[in-house]
Model the fold of this input.
Amino acid sequence: MAGLLDRRELDFLLYELLDTAALPGRPRYREHSREVFDTAIDLFARIAAAQFAPYYRKGDVEEPHFDGERVHLIPETQVAWDTLRASGFLKAHCDEAEGGLQLPEIVLRAAMAHLMVANGPATAYPFLTLGVINLLRAFGSEAQKARYLGPLMDGECAGTMALTEPDQGSALGDIRTRAEPQPDGSYRLFGQKMFISGGEHELSANIVHMVLARIAGAPAGARGISLFLVPKWLPGDGDGDIDVEAAGTPAARSARRNDVALAGLLHKMGQRNSVTTVLNFGEAGGAVGYLVGAAGRGLACMFQMMNEARIGVGLNAAATALRGYRYALDYARSRKQGRPASHKQPLSPQVALTAHADVRRMLLAQKAYAEGGLALCLYASALFEDERTHPEAAARQRAGELLDLLTPVVKSWPAKYGFAANDLAIQVLGGAGYTREHPVEQLLRDQRINAIHEGTEGIHGLDLLGRKLRQHGGAGFGHLRAEVAATVAAARAEAVLAPLAVALETHWRLLDDTSTALLAAQAADIDRALANATAYLDVFGRVVMGWLWLRQACIAVRRLADLGAGADGGDGAGAEDEREGASEAHFYRGKLQAARWYLAWELPAIVPLCRLLGDGDTVAYEMRDAWFG
Amino acid sequence: MAGLLDRRELDFLLYELLDTAALPGRPRYREHSREVFDTAIDLFARIAAAQFAPYYRKGDVEEPHFDGERVHLIPETQVAWDTLRASGFLKAHCDEAEGGLQLPEIVLRAAMAHLMVANGPATAYPFLTLGVINLLRAFGSEAQKARYLGPLMDGECAGTMALTEPDQGSALGDIRTRAEPQPDGSYRLFGQKMFISGGEHELSANIVHMVLARIAGAPAGARGISLFLVPKWLPGDGDGDIDVEAAGTPAARSARRNDVALAGLLHKMGQRNSVTTVLNFGEAGGAVGYLVGAAGRGLACMFQMMNEARIGVGLNAAATALRGYRYALDYARSRKQGRPASHKQPLSPQVALTAHADVRRMLLAQKAYAEGGLALCLYASALFEDERTHPEAAARQRAGELLDLLTPVVKSWPAKYGFAANDLAIQVLGGAGYTREHPVEQLLRDQRINAIHEGTEGIHGLDLLGRKLRQHGGAGFGHLRAEVAATVAAARAEAVLAPLAVALETHWRLLDDTSTALLAAQAADIDRALANATAYLDVFGRVVMGWLWLRQACIAVRRLADLGAGADGGDGAGAEDEREGASEAHFYRGKLQAARWYLAWELPAIVPLCRLLGDGDTVAYEMRDAWFG
Done:
């Protein structure tokens, strides 16, 4: 069904590319099985189809508005939220002891992908709430957990991350919101936060803002930043319980409103169902906040939430690309137009768009970007899982080191190429794609934020080249090198994949050499060495994706052999369509062809970039403000 | 002023890159001078600033709507149209004998660029009307010209081009609208046209639709298509005059409504001020139409309008990119955020965004795309001019052959890279750029159509590789080769440009060899040889743009020498800011640096593409519909 994540694709990634089926072998998941995972995913897929997909367009047209007192969302948003919270989604990954289902991270992410394909903007609310739940589980005091985790896990309370301020944007170290300590151990916060998703609404009885602020007297810069929990509603009777019955009717509450005021909504290009706010803290005496984690460790704590959110952004980007790809594919199959150059007889019937090689090129690119992005994000989720639950300590450490290295790529690659995919979806539809009668223009608008939030592409380039590459003594890069080598070796063993193996190996070596050169250059002049960091991020991402596509191709070739089908469909492909297993063979040939496309058309683009990076090109670095005219 | 085309830039292109100042040496322009050109351009620049720029945003928010009887546009659209027609803009290029100002094409295009920077969507109305004027001037009968040219040139009548139908899209040969000959020599048209810009409005008293249709009994395919003039209002009294006084009040007219009915408006991603319609012809007995040009020559005639429109689309794309670039530049200069990696002391003041190398990279790319696109379109306009008014027959022929070759690039390159520029403008602004408080998101939406209309990117790839490259016996490509060689030779003479000259020469040779190989391959298997035509178009465009940037760099280096300023600003650049001519030196250094950036970062991307093209890569060609899953 268009607009929903293809289950065959998801199963391939979860159970063929990744070893999700082995997770029940770990103590934490011993009560589970693949059937349990699939049942959970199916449940959320049904919710995605029934409660999220139907209002994708309406959520764009009727964006949230503020009447001066309340923020109004379309009612479908409430139904979707309520259905999701009733399903237990927000606590599905939590311990059974916490009331959760103890499902693995990757199962949660797969479920999230279903929701994101159906209605990306609407997932901002649960997505942020999950992040706050995990942040509190990791760093909250026992009292904080006792008071807020339950309501958050049940969706009586929603969460936000309140980091950005109007005057600092990406430079978090410069935030100025201040926190004044109170005799009772709480704080009063004063300041303004901007671009806060889900900052005000009445989906839930309460909202918990996770706020970065500076305790009075704290040092300047990142070391002076602390993390605070700032609820929208404060307990009126001192026991902190949320009066659920009174949800949405503040006047009836026993709770009292905290000093967090909505300064206004931001009206965006896309993602309109997700309300984005400017919040004022402390205009009326100070917003009550509670320190989470140690003073001065706010950024370190928040990085947990940010790193999870970064995988989530990548996932949203991949999901948005997937939806556009499937829509464009359906359109291209049903729309007849023109003829190949060799068949210009005007009386011959027009052919389907997919009969044009250039349309197949655009669809292949979308497939490579969208499925590749999803593969990357689920791989990152598997690393996240391994870091926490792998039975061997060395494997846990390795997974964590690899995930740290890859996080900038997981955030950035699907955003950049997901945007390219959504752009191609419009192009496949042509003029029709430019109208709002089809969803592809909305998908492009919704997608556009992903290269910005949770760190812009430029920020992640600096993070990768300036920090992650050398982190853990370069261990992460070493692990990646080993992974690539293993895949190259496996591919070499398959005759049909040998040229792809050579391509990946050659380009990996280029990345490896370029990385070494750039690390050395950093010692000499850090600004010059980082000047082209965004290009480095792109090179790095292309190689990682080349590796993931070659891994998928290896599986495809083996499965095709199992099916007794050739890799290229042979001359009898038409006849083969009648055979049992034909659709399976088609699926794997599609994977193989997408891998061929990616390794042939996308990977070699790194060659000229690596030359510029290796030479330390300074054109942008030396450009001066005045010369722009 | 932000939102307006920089005059220094325009002067550089008109009078330094191109030899516009020499046009008064031609008989047609002997009454003119550069001062006259500049006065005309200034006039339209003032109209752009006063009547077009102010409602750019409003035209997006309050899009045209149809109440079942009339199409409503915001009143500012009417004021802009009236101001423009009163200025004589629509006839500025026409002969004095026709009542025009006999201004050169490039001056008209420069004026149009001002309007497009100010408000691209609003220029659809004059832009199409100009196309119809030129079409009638070239192919209309004397009676048609006598009746319609005057009202069109005065803007009492607007024009449209009505080609596309719901079932054929890009495949014009398959259109089905039929024309039945009448005893009086007129025709009755029956059919539906889609994506017709300006198809219905009341800006002008009348609208003239230029409609492609098939005369009953005509052969199938392109050879059976004829061109018809179909007015919205028919003369009631037989003399064909438009009752101007009654404009907008159809009931009061002596004219009668032709059988052209608005089936509906299309609601678009952007370009919303430009009304886009579906039109039904002949629902009530047949729309009266008049044959323009010979029967069966409709496509050939229409290609004149399409080719002009293609330069216009490129120009719109470049203008939209320019506006985004200047907006992002202003923002980056005023917005302070973060510090370079070498200056991390948290108490030091934040720096302007332009102090970050990655932001300069994004601005340089926008500069290269936007100014490069404008240079390309104005160069095409100069060729258009030369084809018509160059005193030497050989030069006229040469200009026409070169323009034919370059038209697919002029249409496509600014659209593709203008979109990339607008995307980068959003990225420079970050989260702010994603909100509708800044125009950059609208610019991206407005830009998106340019890769679709007047032929998609894929169509132009096929046109370039399958037709234009071999047209005129390959003469156009030969002329381009000579132009590139001349620029390479000039650049070699400047020490600072020698490496850039080598780069262009090397990459030209690659394009040249690849072109030869692909021409040869077409003889063997046309479908395979054209399968990667879009990639060929991109390669071709990158080389053409590399050449145009090297030409600009040659001028910059010479002017810097004239100014006694070094190419790199030296160490005393700060002191130099105080000197006379500093801003001129800055201007040329910016040109030089953009050329360096383009030749270093964009040109070498053709190397892997040429390898794939030369090898005749078949990944997309061999992909099968069924394999997409």
